[in-house]
Amino acid sequence: MDKLIIRGRARLKGEVDISGSKNAVLPIMAAALLSEEESVIENVPNLWDVQTMVKLLRSLGAKAILESGVLKIKPGNHLKPFAPYKLVKTMRASVCVLGPLLARLGEAEVSLPGGCAIGPRPIDLHLKGLEALSAEIQIDHGYVHAKVTSRLRGTDIYLGGGYGSSVLATGNVMMAAVLAQGRTVVENAACEPEVVDLANFLKKMGAKIQGEGSPRIEIEGVKKLRGVSYRVIPDRIEAGTYMFASAITQGDVLIRKMEPGHLNAVIDKLQQAGVRIEKYKNAVRVKRIGKLRASDVTTLAYPAFPTDLQAQAMALMTITPGISIITEKIYPNRFMHVPELGRMGAKIFLEGPSAIVHGVRKLSGAPVMASDLRASAALVLAALVAEGETEVQRIYHLDRGYEDLEKKLTALGATIRREKE
Ligand code: EPU
């Protein structure tokens, strides 16, 4: 296992390019299974999660090759409907193959994803949606067994149940409905840019979809889809992470090849916190000149502040004078970074789904443990500003979701190295 050694008191300066979106590309890779023809996906980040999905596609019988950001997927005509525990357990997004396999093969056997460090993550909405499309679903021995006697049938689906909306459930249902017979209307659909990207990919393949990006998506099923070339959107969470990195280090960073319109809530919060933001067409410049101001953040579904930037926002709050409050509405237990930030001198109190952060004058470097992808990013940000050296252990979490993290941070002036634990 690798660890990162980060020297603190960094001041980031320069330019950084954002990679393709992890959470957009994973469902798109599953969607490629909907045609027998080859699809070519561009702007694909080289991440562990992408490699895991490549392995899963291959184990299903598809050809998949990733080279220099270009991923070629050829599903062919001999797909197997089986996604094993060994692959699904390492990455929840594997559950995305359920909809496409069911739509193409009429059956799918996919392992239940199981527990996750950020709290319970059920898949009841995925199953509710697929059942509404006339799939018969059973859960047995830790696997979801789904099958349909003839073709899936379009219908009206309310994709909720008191939890708000779900990104991957919306994706799974959309991927099944594009090949169903007749019309499907999904209400309470997730509106995240990754859902829109998936819909755009499917539309290029020949699917008939309207309303993506709103809570009501209408899909008219078609008989067949074709392979296509497609470029994935930039990763808004990676971009947001570098925005917080610049803010926390009193930096001046131009973040390029991103979509500022995907981060309006984050830009607004950073401005409230006293950080200067200049917006350009595909870039933002984040510069901290004056004092930070305390602020409150509540995570909610898009277009509100994303849960995947909650930990990074908290890192900034730890050194912001006064009291800031974060309320986590998507995953109420997503606070594993709190005790680790505490080891670096942060003063944070948990009250149910809220964290009350008392700003301290400085953090100090310490050995800390990464627990999930975004918590790890928060520890790296805290390390950049802390006094002395921080050792972030178990950084395989970071390798799941941040392409070239050390390289990009080093180019911005950070002192950071990777060592074997
Ligand atoms: N939920 C249910 N039932 C379901 C599905 C979800 O109750 O069947 C609830 C969850 O418990 C949670 C909420 O709905 O409270 C949102 O979960 P969602 O299903 O949207 O999460 P997801 O689609 O599995 C994606 C991202 C996550 C991100 C969330 C929220 C991918 C691969 N993952 O997960 O990303 O946090 O949406 O925006 O797209 C990450 O990148 O670090 C990450 C965890």
Strand order of the largest sheet: 22-23-1-24
Mean pLDDT: 96
> What's the CATH topology label of the largest domain?
UDP-n-acetylglucosamine1-carboxyvinyl-transferase, Chain
Helix amount, in percent? 25-40%
CATH class categorisation of the largest domain: Alpha Beta
What composes the largest sheet? 4 strands, mixed
Distance between the ends: 6 Å
Supply the CATH architecture of the largest domain: Alpha-beta prism
Number of domains: 2
CATH homologous superfamily designation of the largest domain:
Enolpyruvate transferase domain
Q: Which value, in Å, is the CA radius of gyration?
A: 21 Å
Classify the beta-strand content into a percent band. Answer: 25-35%
What hetero molecules are in the model? uridine-diphosphate-2(N-acetylglucosaminyl) butyric acid
- What form results from the Cα inertia axes? elongated
Structural class: alpha/beta
Total helices: the number is 14
